[in-house]
């Protein structure tokens, strides 16, 4: 029996290893697939820094020719300011982020960073200038330290600990028996959505890019975690040009401008106060979120 068990057990381990490698490969190919969507122009130069203003000018975009997703979208994020995007699921919020990161090229209009069309400069330099805190952070099957230091390979342990503290994930890490050497990911310690997002914030703090994209998690976090993440985000976003895709209106109150999207169009825009005074769609969403039904807001709005 034992003779049979060992090979079977070994096969089981092998199967899991192969399956995991295939999953990792799959992720890699998905990323490469996206990479192939756009290519650098011959002789493209790196993005020149300076004033990190981001501009969308009359952007029209379709993933597939038959279905236009964004219609004539224009807005500006002045250097160091935060613009927030709200709207129902499928209205095109994440597409804005994907275009800014240049996963795809626009069909009409243009996107500029520091006055340069993102299609004219190298993709690598655009991505170097932007830090993304995604909704669902992919963690590597490696140590906590590796996962944070990924933001800036070569960062020292002290630097990793410093950003982990700032992202309020240090105490949690320190409470595990192996601390920063704890393995995370599918084969290690499982982190909650909020903990993963804090690892992503720590990574981004290490990268310290001039432009930030924050895709707020749709999944409900407990309110203490949510407040901690929002406070951290606010301090991370200070002095950075920031695009926030918001699912909770409380996140957007202080934004320089709020864009309300519906079916790929900006239907309202302004500051929180101006939008409330306008008494339109945003005011309606806000009232709904404030009301006793607030907890059901996410479901009702399909956000
Ligand atoms: P959510 O709040 O649910 O994240 P969203 O407002 O961010 O939604 P997007 O992810 O920008 O919405 O999607 C806008 C539309 O584009 C949706 O109808 C979606 O089905 C479509 N879409 C997104 N990605 C692709 C893709 N890779 N290929 C084809 N269509 C896509």
UniProtKB/TrEMBL annotation:
Signal peptide: none annotated. The chain crosses the membrane at residues 1-15. It is found in: Cell membrane. Residues 54-288 form the ABC transporter domain. This is ABC transporter ATP-binding protein/permease. The chain holds residues 312 to 614 of 614 of the full protein. It comes from the Bacteria. It comes from Ramlibacter cellulosilyticus.
């Amino acid at each position: 029996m034992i003779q049979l068990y060992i090979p079977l057990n070994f096969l089981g381990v092998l199967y899991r290893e192969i399956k995991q490698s295939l999953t990792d490969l799959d992720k890699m190919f998905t990323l490469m697939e996206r990479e192939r969507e756009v290519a650098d122009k011959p002789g493209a130069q790196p993005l020149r820094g300076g004033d990190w203003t981001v501009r969308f000018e009359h952007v029209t975009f379709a993933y597939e020719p038959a279905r236009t997703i964004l219609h004539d979208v224009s807005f500006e994020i002045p250097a160091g300011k935060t613009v927030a995007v709200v709207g129902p699921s499928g209205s095109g919020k994440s597409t804005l982020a994907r275009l800014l990161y240049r996963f795809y090229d626009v069909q009409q209009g243009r996107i500029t960073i520091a006055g340069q069309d993102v299609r004219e400069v190298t993709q690598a330099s655009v991505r170097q200038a932007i830090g993304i805190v995604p909704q669902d952070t992919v963690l590597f099957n490696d140590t906590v330290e590796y996962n944070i230091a990924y933001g800036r390979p070569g960062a020292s342990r002290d630097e990793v600990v410093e950003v982990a503290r700032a992202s309020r994930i240090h105490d949690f890490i320190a409470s595990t028996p192996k601390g920063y050497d704890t393995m995370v990911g599918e084969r290690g310690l499982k982190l909650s959505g909020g903990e993963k997002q804090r690892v992503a914030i720590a990574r981004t703090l290490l990268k310290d890019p001039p432009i930030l994209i924050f895709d707020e998690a749709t999944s409900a976090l407990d309110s203490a975690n949510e407040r901690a993440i929002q406070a951290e985000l606010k301090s991370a976003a200070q002095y950075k040009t920031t695009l926030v895709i918001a699912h909770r209106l409380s996140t957007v109150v202080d934004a320089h401008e709020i864009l309300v999207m519906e079916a790929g169009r900006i239907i309202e825009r302004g500051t929180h106060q101006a939008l409330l005074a306008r008494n339109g769609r945003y005011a309606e969403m806000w009232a709904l979120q404030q009301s006793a039904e607030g907890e059901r807001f996410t479901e009702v709005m399909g956000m």
